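Exercise 7.
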Amino acid sequence: MHWTDIYDIAIELEDARPDEDIMKVRFTDLWKWVQDLPGFEDDPEKSSEKILEAIQMAWLDERD
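Solution. The predicted structure, written as tokens, is:
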């Protein structure tokens, strides 16, 4: 997975952290959690606030 695989990341985050309050997650934590996902192999420096926000919103959609 790469930073641009937003929906795949959201699915994996929901599986890994189903009890997390998505709207209260700090981007610094989200950044680390994404990198800790199995199969994630992108450069940490390719992330941005815009990408993290998109992942957060996709994760929220995945939960609904």
